[in-house]
Write a structure and sequence with these properties.
441 residues, alpha/beta, Rossmann fold, 2 domains, 8-stranded mixed beta sheet, 13 strands, 39% helix, elongated
Length: 441
């Protein structure tokens, strides 16, 4: 074993290693918490100075992590944050949790990974381990990152170490934390993999070491493609069964009673979150480069991307049945987050729904108790704030569109006061009383 590896392993064992986390968002900040809990000192890096300012002040900026989360981390005296990437050499282990979005043609955008890697190459020193956690296509760690890091003159697997470990965060989930979700780890060489395993084993209950970084990269894609395909299936079933007058939600509940061979997935107004709407296209892009087609995956993507259009068509027909055009109608969108009970709006279909309704001339407002103001997106800048949800306000709209089924919503009250409801989440399926004004979508 190399001397840098011996030194790093000793630091990991006695917790004297400094862990650097690049990207202090929905993935990075919980990872900071797990490393702090394991006894490491953590230095966080982010290009957003607002996050650094919030951390310095002990202020929360991710609601679902709970009140006082940041203050508890900084209160240990072992966590600080910076926007100065020249300090990367202070960390013995650098964990990269930066965005990997899609470009305008659904091609991978690795610019955040590339810029972070370039910054690392300028500061790289012997005895450091670099682990990419951002979702990407197989060969990114070895083929994109390593050549840049090698420009430092250091030798991978001897002087510095490089691995991949896919993030498995599920924002808002209460029964699984970062420390208890099994961690897959793969190195670009065996020693890098072993050191990455030792690092995560200090903070995570179960670490699964695989043979290569490429296996770890592909495992993340398979996990999310599996979900995307099954969501597409149930979305298509919703369309077919709806045309036949069959309730998809009751069908799913019946199917769930089978104790084997079935896992429940649920339809919705479109895909949201950073993973499922994006990750499949990383593989399809890479496959095209190898001269291969991914017809099954791309078909699932087409089905899921069509759902916002289906919702708007359903809403237009529901208004038309009541003698109202979409143009000039007042519509309230309930829920801006992509999933219940979080303040996460990444790839939320609500943004597209609002934009489509506006383009048809509707007067649109939204309510989301977790998101007071709509953040600007690359494709959408809604410039909206959440309106108050009262019986009088509900009654003033021509249509209430349920996009996110937050648990704080009282669906009986919504059904009682709304003139028309278009329900994309099955939120009102247990509402008692008159249901003629509730339209599934």
């Amino acid at each position: 074993m190399s001397r840098p590896a011996d030194q790093l392993r000793a630091k990991l064992a006695d917790r004297s290693a400094v862990v650097g986390v690049v990207g202090l968002g929905y993935v990075g900040l919980p990872l900071v918490g797990a490393m702090i809990e394991a006894g490491f000192r953590v230095l966080g890096f982010d290009i957003d100075p607002a996050k650094v300012t919030s951390i310095d002040a002990g202020e929360d900026y991710i609601a679902h992590l709970g009140e006082g989360y940041v203050a508890r981390l900084t209160g240990t005296g072992r966590f600080s944050a910076t926007a100065d990437f020249t300090r990367l050499d202070e960390a013995d282990a650098v964990l990269i949790c930066v965005p990997t979005p899609l470009g305008p043609h659904r091609e991978p955008d690795l610019s955040y990974v590339e810029r972070t890697t370039e910054a690392l190459a300028r500061t790289l020193r012997p005895g450091q381990i670099i682990v990419l956690e951002s979702t990407t296509y197989p060969t990114t760690t070895r083929g994109v990152m390593q050549p840049v890091l090698d420009t430092s003159g250091l030798v991978c697997g001897q002087d510095y170490f490089l691995a991949y470990s896919p993030e498995r965060e599920d924002p808002g989930r209460k029964d699984r934390s970062t420390a208890v979700i099994p961690k897959v780890v793969g190195g670009v060489d065996p020693l890098s993999g072993e050191l990455a395993r030792d690092l995560y084993a200090a903070a995570v209950r179960e670490v699964v070491l695989v043979d290569s970084a490429e296996i770890a990269e592909a495992s993340k894609l398979l996990e999310n493609i599996y979900r995307a395909v099954n969501i597409a299936l149930v979305n298509e079933m919703k369309l077919v069964l709806g045309a036949l007058g069959v309730d998809i939600w009751k069908v799913i509940e019946a199917s769930k009673t089978k104790p084997f061979g079935f896992q429940a997935f649920y339809p919705g107004p479109g895909l949201g979150g950073h993973c499922i709407p994006i990750d499949p296209y990383y593989l399809t892009w890479k496959a095209r480069g190898a001269g291969l087609n991914t017809r099954f995956i791309e078909l699932a993507g087409e089905v899921n991307r069509s759902m916002p259009g289906h919702v708007i068509d359903t809403l237009a027909r529901a208004l038309n049945d009541r003698g109202k055009p979409v143009k000039g109608s007042r519509v309230l969108v309930m829920g801006l987050a992509y999933k219940p009970d979080v303040d996460d709006t990444r790839e939320s279909p609500s943004f597209e729904l609002i934009a489509r309704l506006r383009s048809l001339g509707a007067e649109v407002e939204y309510n989301d108790p977790h998101i007071p103001s709509a953040p600007a997106k690359r494709d959408y800048d809604l410039a909206m704030s959440s309106v108050e949800l009262t019986p009088e306000n509900l009654a003033s709209y021509d249509c209430v569109l349920i996009s996110t089924n937050h648990t704080v919503y009282d669906w009986d009250e919504v059904a009682q006061h709304a003139a028309l409801i278009v329900d994309t989440r099955g939120a009102c399926r247990y509402v008692e009383g008159p249901r003629d004004h509730i339209v599934p979508a």
